[in-house]
Amino acid sequence: MSAWRPDPGPTVPEVVGTAYGLEPRSVELLVRESPNQVWRFTAADGPYTLKRLGRPGQESWLAFQDAAVLRAAAHGVPVEPLLRTADGRPTAAAHGALWQLRRYVAGRPAADGDAADLRAAAEVIAAVHAVPLDGLPEAGGNPIQDMEFWLGADAEALDRLGALVRDLVGAALWEETADAYRGAHRRARAELDLASYQALPTTLTHGELAGSNLVFDDDGTLVSLLDWDGVDVRPRVYDLARGLLFLARAGRGSFRVHHRLGTDLLLGAAGGRPLTRAELRAVVPVLELYFVPTPRYVRQLAATDLAALRWYLGWAADGARTVRESVREVVGALAAGAGRAPLLERP
Fold it and tell me: Where's the Aminoglycoside phosphotransferase domain (predicted)?
C-alpha cells in the first residue's frame, strides 16, 4: 500500500529552491514500489507534487510529454500540466536526476468495483483518445516500453533477460518465474505481431491507467488524471487493455476482472469510435506481454531498489500466468456481440 511519511532531508528543499524558487515546508515522501520517487510539500502559495523520474526520458520524449499534456488539458482532460523551472523548462536537472513539479490535487483514488468511478474513468479515457494529434512533436523514445518491446523481440531475448535476472537477484527467482514469462510470450506472439499491432487504431494514449492515477473529489467527480510517464501516440488498445485489468479488477493486487464492469469500461472508453474485432483480439496478448519484464525496466528497478525488483518479478509472473483467463471472458463476450448492438465495427 502507498503511504506518505515525513521527509526532513535536504534534497527536496534544494531542488525546488534552486530550480523553481520555492521554499517548501512539511515535505512528505510517497512510499510505494516504483522506480519514481514522489514527494508532496506545501509552499506559501499551496501544495505541490515533486517527482524524481526513475525512468528518465530522452529530451525529445520529454518535450513531447509536455506538449501532449498541455494539449490534453486544452481539450478538457483533467490534468495538472508540468510547472516551469526558473529558466522556463518543464523538467529540472539536479542531483544527477530529472525532476518534474505539478500542483498537488487532493482526493481519493478510484474505488475497485465501483460502477460510478468506472463510468468516469471510461469517459476520461475516451477524452484522452480524442485529443487531436496534429502539430504535436515526435514522441521519440518512450521510457516505458514493455509489451511493444516483446512484439519486436524473439525467444532469445528471454534468455538474455534470464541472464540479467540471475546476475541481479540470483538464479532461484528466475527459475521460479521463467516458465510464466516464456508461456505468456509464446501465447501472445502466436496471436499478435508488431505489424498487426501497429495497424490498429492509433490515438494519444496515457500509458499507465490505474485506479491510483485517478483522483476523485468528495462528490465523486474525477478531478485529475495523474502520472503521464507513459504518454505516447500508439494503438489505443494499449490503454484499453491496461484499463480493463487495473480499473475493472476485483481489488488491489487481484488479476480477476469483474465481467460487467469490464464490458462497460471497454464500451465507454471506446467513445464515438466503436471497438474493432482486431482490437478485441489484441487485448489478451497485449496484457500477457505487459507482464513479461523488459531488460531495461529490470535494470532501472534494480538501480532503485532490489527488494522492489524481487517483488515485481514475482508479481509479473503471477500476472503472466493468470491474465488470459481473467480477461478472456469479457473480451470474448464483446467479440460475440453479447446481445448488445451496435458494439463493434467489423474489422
Answer: 36-257
Task: Report the alpha-carbon distance of residue 297 to residue 250 in Å, rounded.
Answer: 27
37 with 27: CB under 8 angstroms? no
Full set of structural domains in the chain with CATH: 3-103 (3.30.200.20), 115-345 (3.90.1200.10)
**H/E/C letters for each residue in 278-292?**
HHHHHHHHHHHHHCC
Q: How many CA atoms lie within 13 A of 69 on its CB side?
A: 22
CA dihedral 90, 202, 131, 240 (to 10 degrees): -90
Place of cell 489505443: 236
Rounded distance between C-alpha atoms, residue 246 and residue 235, angstroms: 18
Closest CA to 64 of 39, 99, 85, 91: 91
Encode pLDDT of 102-159 as tens digits. Answer: 999 999 999 988 999 999 999 999 999 999 999 999 987 787 778 999 999 988 999 9
CB atoms within 10 A of CB 256: 15
CA distance 147 to 287: 8
Q: What's the predicted TM-score (pTM) here?
A: 0.92
**The residue to which cell 480493463 is assigned:** 244
Q: Which three cell numbers stand for residue 162?
A: 534470464
Side-chain-side CA neighbours of residue 73 (13 Å): 14
